[in-house]
Structure formats: structure tokens, C-alpha cells
Amino acid sequence: MSLPSSSIQNEQQAARAFSQQSLVFDGYDAGNTIIAYKRQRVHAHVLQWLAPGGRILELNAGTGTDATWFARQGYRVHATDIAEGMQQKLAEKVEALGLADKVSRELCSFNDLEHLQQRGPYDCIFSNFAGLNCTDKLDEVLRSFDPLLKPGGQVSLAILPGFCLWEFLLLFKGKFRTAFRRLFSSKGARSRVEGHYFRCWYYSPAYVKRHLGDQYELLGLEGLCTLVPPSYIEGFAEKHPRAYALLRKMEDRWKGRWPWKYIGDYYIISFRKKG
What we know:
By secondary structure, the chain is of the alpha/beta class. The chain has helices at 5-21, 25-30, 33-47, 65-72, 84-97, 138-143, 165-169, 176-180, 205-212, 236-239, 241-254, and strands at residues 55-59, 76-81, 103-107, 122-127, 149-159, 189-193, 196-200, 216-224, 266-273. It has 11 helices and 9 strands.
């Protein structure tokens, strides 16, 4: 797709931010109990419908935590990212784990999938933890999936919605900017990672379904961090273990119900390509 200059600039800023974050990302990830919970939830969701041994195209793969996990489950993963730092850490991780025969990589933006070198077709297109929120052209990204996916193939995405209950409740702690940032973000919410600023946009499940089109059927939708707090509320699980255990139990029970599937920090959504 052809991006306007403002979108290109935002993409470049995000790439610089996440390249810088690659230096500390794995350490932060490994030490955060709620991030581990989120990954477990996303993986379990994806595997509900994904046949063993298939090929996965991962977008915004980061340092390869998900790519290497799926590879150890027997899948072949083509891991893409626009951040050179993330791709370098991914390459080091794949080499260290001896997974070079299972994980390939490519420096490629999800905004530029028509120029992807390894075009599949794939059994699954996967994106975790809101990478796709870093574009104001998600409609065009979604429409670019079709030639890369096999008939019967799966799309599984973890995306930030336009309302998060936990964030809104920060209103009562006087954190007004955080509480309202999703509600007034039609032009993108300003985000900061490792000293670099870029913009994020928020998208509803209905938006994703509409722009994938009628050739895709919805498989499942569940909220993530609806009752369990977002991972940026650091140390919650360790400081309040009983509350965390209770909230996790309740979220696991209600994750696919209304309104919980719509008001989490993220939602996880999966589709099957018809045909």
C-alpha cells in the first residue's frame, strides 16, 4: 500500500522506539507475571483452531518470544518486524535455541505486505500485543492478508480496543490523560517508548471483522486483561497474590462473555478464511 508521509513518519518513529526497546525487552517480559499470563492466554486461544505443524506468518514479531514458542510446538514461523533491533534479537534467540530450521525472519512492515519476500501461503497470520495499533491504515493491512493465507487459513490478532475498564478507573486516581486517552484518539494517541514518541490508534472487533470482509468467518473473541489488571500496573500479582488469583479465575471464566470481551486492555480475535 502507499502510505501518506505522516503515516510513514509515524512508522519510522515506532521502528526506532522498538529497536531501542529490544535491548531491555526480554528482561522486562520475563520478569512480569501478568505478561506471562497474557501470552499463555493468547497461545491457548490461537491453538484452539490451528492444526498441528502448519506455517505461521507473524507480524510485529519483536524479539521472537512467540515465534520460538510456536516453533517448539512444531510450527514453522516466518517472523516479520520493521524494527531492526528486534529482528537482531530474534536472530540471536533463534540461533541460541537451535530453531533455525523452524523460524525464518524478514525485515518487513505489516504496511508493506505486498512486498513480502516469503509469501506462503500460510496456515495462520498472527499478531500479538497491539503491534497493529501502530497504524492508522489497519483497514488496508487487513485487506492485504488474503493472498498470503491458504483457504481455510486462520487470522489471530491481539488488539487494543477503544475502551479499557482498568484504564478508565484510573480516573479516580486523578490520572485523567490515561483514563481518557482511548476515548479521544481519532487522530491517534501519543505513545512513548524508550524516549521515542509515535501514535497509536484503537480498533473495535467490529472494525476488524468489517475490513477483513465476508470471506472470513469469526471463530472466537475474548477480552484480555478485563479483570486482571494491565501488565503496566507492575507488581500487582506479587503484592496482591490472592486478589490476582481471584481476578484471573473470574477473567478466565468470563473472557468470552458480554461485556468483558469488549472492555479489556486487549481483545484476542480469530477468523477462518472461507473456501
